[in-house]
Amino acid sequence: MHNLNVRLLFSFSLVFALCSCDKKFKDDNFTAYFGGEVTNPTNRYVLFCKDSEVIDTIPLNEDNTFFKTFDSLAPGLYSFKHEPEYQYVYFDKNDSLMVRINSQDFDESIIFCGRGEEKNNFMMELYLKNEDDKNKLFEVFDADLQKFTRNIDSSYKSKEAFYNKKKEEIKWSEDFDKYAKASLDFFHYSKKEIYPMVHEMRTGENIDGKLPTDYYDFRNNVDFNNAAFTNFSPFVRYLSNMMNNVATDKEFTNVSEIDKALEINIKKLNIADTLFKNEKIKNIVLNNIAFTYLLEDQNIVNNKKFLDKYHALSTDKDQHNEIVKIGNAIQSLKTGSDLPDINLVDVDGKVQSIGSIIKKKTVVFFWTKNLESHLVASHKKVLEIQKKHPDYDFVAICVDENQDKWKASLTNYKFKGIKEYRAENFEDLKDKLVVNKIHRTILTDSNGKIDNAFVSLFDSKFEENLR
């Protein structure tokens, strides 16, 4: 760790040397520098982003360091990503930042140095305080209202004192302050939104009638149409918690879980339509609601009802919109439609279309080495079903890319009678078959036509679909 910090500081000294001939930057100079080192890298690059859009892909050198000069970088909040993890970084004018990252302990490892380090290290420290707080929340949600309120108010005051102290010491800009204060406030607000729901789930007690009339007054402090927060995760998480709370504020009787989910999520769409006046923000929120719902729902009729409502409210008509693509793909998976053509790879490396391997009624399921418990559970489940339904073929598709690792995984198990394949191109498979959940299962007839494209292997009534 010591040597790593030395290297980072040395790298930054080079940056400083580049700037030192003109210690005062010109008013129209927005040059900035960003670099650092990644320990235990998971890939060979760092993504530098603004509002979820990639600005630059910065390659790692042989020694796992990276460095980028930006000729013109507007002050503001950015993020850097070493997949699958990401974190925020804030640049004031002419900031020059180096960062230490260990991919195996991502958030806890991050240390900034250079011009602009103090405010960014504050944001990381506040983030880690919130994460530590979050890990202790479940027992707090079990508590009665008085004890819960006392606990979260005490936690907030402690972090607020930390925020005020650092604000006075660092004297950061007003623009940075809105993100710093938001990180403090939205985490606190989220706890208040979550409490009634989680308390009832964990204790069985409906607390709504005991909440004081001013319990939700903090919502008056939230500027829901502040475009700066559109992609800021503390706000996005708060928004999700708030909408879940509001959308589930009534009893659902004699309604299936699938229909309940539809009603709740259509209500969320209506809330977003009313709450957000900024069209760009509203469309992003509608997209987030739609994407989250479509990851969970497995009923094609309800999907259509939901998407009809989504399209009626959203003004984002871009055909590249992810929700539009998912909606179109869902419609192509209706019962009686041909199974979309995707390429699979067998253990010998031979590429075949999925249609060419379907000779009789077939159950198609998916797995990944990264979820070994699901790998084993899904195959064991299929082996049980196979005995009772010998008229079906069972096709397992691994979504991982590495052929050798896939074959090595299979050698650890004996799944006799299951046809094993690997997706040649996972993105193609994901887009055409809408495989956003590894638990998805697809049933076809003997001609490769879809019988049911949205069913779970672990549904207690799964075998009722086999006929």
Automatic annotation (TrEMBL):
PROSITE patterns: PROKAR_LIPOPROTEIN, THIOREDOXIN_2. Coiled coil: none annotated. This is Thioredoxin domain-containing protein. It comes from the Bacteria. InterPro entries: Thioredoxin-like_fold (IPR012336), Thioredoxin-like_sf (IPR036249), Thioredoxin_domain (IPR013766). Signal peptide: none annotated. Residues 333-467 form the Thioredoxin domain.
